[in-house]
């Protein structure tokens, strides 16, 4: 089997490659990435791409169809990958996350691929009431990033047929240690703050709900989706990916970090304006369709692995939110250095 993984040199990609190399040792794994974050390695013994058979450095907006020859399945991780980046580069977000992703699926189908796995997001539910959101709930995307996911899912449904299975994995907020760690994610940020300063300051009032998932469990879900039977969800499936036990309020996450890291001070801005990005999610459908690929990592384990990984890096940077561990900071520095244009293409 030949599998193309776009965006493989980011935060999630190395875990996906490790998972697929473990469960599919004879598969040909092909990576495609522009390499913006290639040098953002964190406590990795080897270059993660050593587990890739073929690595292309190419823009998803300009994928040449010959790369798709013989490819059986595509895992599309390539994206402007969070709200701050999406808000800064709104037009590029729609080009990369939405238009280029849909075009890649069309090209792959023409070249004979059978499966397309899209890394979607639960953020498309946006501001929600107290009822956990199911796949049939109304979508309320509040950001360019979330809208890009909604637009892509809608068009992918038109492409799927009996010869081309599409799976849109609506992931919870990612967390956990990675060979290319990001600290612009809520739990990762809290653990980094705890390690570097001994204090977590919650900028909101702490009440917003977030569903979380560890990057290892994201990789397991992708492994399942690559060759899932179309009887399990249909030719085009959109499914929430996570666990009902992993719906947390932000303040609960801070308290969980404090339970693992002794002596931590947690402060909440009780005067903050409510964060509209608050939602709980129901994951019953994923549990029904993928019983053997359910999340396995506990919250305490995720926090402990982040702590151990950061400590192994001798991490002490109290100004980490201005470092290359924040993806928007990396892009902005590449722009300042004249290496990228405003359209996020290499000059």
Structure, described:
It is a single chain. By secondary structure, the chain is of the alpha/beta class. The protein has a domain at 2-175 and 213-244 and 281-296 and 330-336: NAD(P)-binding Rossmann-like Domain (Rossmann fold). Helix content is 34%, strand content 17%. It has a seven-stranded parallel β-sheet, sandwiched between helices. A three-stranded mixed β-sheet has the order 7-9-11. Strands 8-12 form a two-stranded parallel sheet. Helix 4 (144-159) links the parallel strand 5 (115-121) and strand 6 (165-171). Helix 1 packs across helix 6, helix 3 (90-110) runs parallel beside helix 4 and helix 5 (186-197) crosses helix 7. The radius of gyration is 19 Å and the shape is globular. The relative contact order is 0.15.
Looking at this protein, list some descriptive labels.
single chain, 3-stranded mixed sheet, 347 residues, Rossmann fold, alpha/beta, 10 helices
């Amino acid at each position: 089997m030949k599998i193309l993984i776009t965006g493989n040199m980011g935060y999630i990609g190395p875990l996906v490659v490790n998972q697929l190399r473990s469960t599919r040792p004879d598969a040909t794994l092909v990576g495609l990435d522009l390499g913006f974050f290639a040098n953002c390695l964190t406590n990795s013994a080897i270059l993660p791409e050593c587990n890739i058979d073929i690595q292309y450095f190419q823009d998803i907006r300009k994928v040449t169809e010959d790369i798709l020859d013989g490819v059986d399945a595509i895992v599309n991780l390539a994206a402007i990958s969070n709200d701050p980046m999406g808000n800064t580069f709104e037009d590029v977000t729609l080009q990369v996350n939405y238009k280029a992703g849909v075009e890649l699926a069309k090209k792959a189908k023409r070249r004979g691929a059978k499966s397309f796995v899209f890394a979607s997001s639960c953020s498309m539910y946006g501001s929600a009431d107290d009822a956990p959101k199911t796949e049939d709930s109304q979508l309320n995307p509040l950001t360019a990033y979330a809208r890009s996911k909604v637009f892509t899912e809608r068009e992918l449904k038109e492409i799927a047929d009996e010869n081309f299975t599409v799976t849109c994995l609506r992931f919870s907020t990612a967390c956990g240690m990675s060979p290319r760690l990001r600290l612009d994610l809520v739990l990762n940020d809290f653990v980094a703050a705890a390690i570097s300063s001994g204090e977590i300051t919650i900028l909101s009032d702490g009440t917003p709900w977030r569903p979380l998932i560890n990057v290892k469990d994201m990789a397991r879900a992708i492994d399942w989706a690559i060759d899932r039977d179309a009887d399990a969800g249909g030719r085009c499936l959109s499914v929430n990916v996570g666990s009902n036990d992993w719906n947390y309020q932000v303040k609960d996450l801070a308290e969980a970090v404090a339970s693992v890291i002794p002596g931590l001070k947690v402060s909440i801005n009780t005067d903050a304006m409510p964060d509209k990005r608050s939602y709980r999610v129901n994951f019953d459908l994923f549990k029904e369709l993928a019983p053997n690929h359910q999340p396995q990592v506990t919250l305490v384990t995720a926090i402990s692995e982040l702590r151990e990984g950061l400590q192994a890096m001798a991490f002490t940077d109290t100004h980490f939110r201005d470092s290359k561990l924040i993806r928007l900071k990396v892009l902005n520095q590449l722009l300042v250095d004249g290496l990228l244009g405003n359209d996020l293409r290499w000059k």
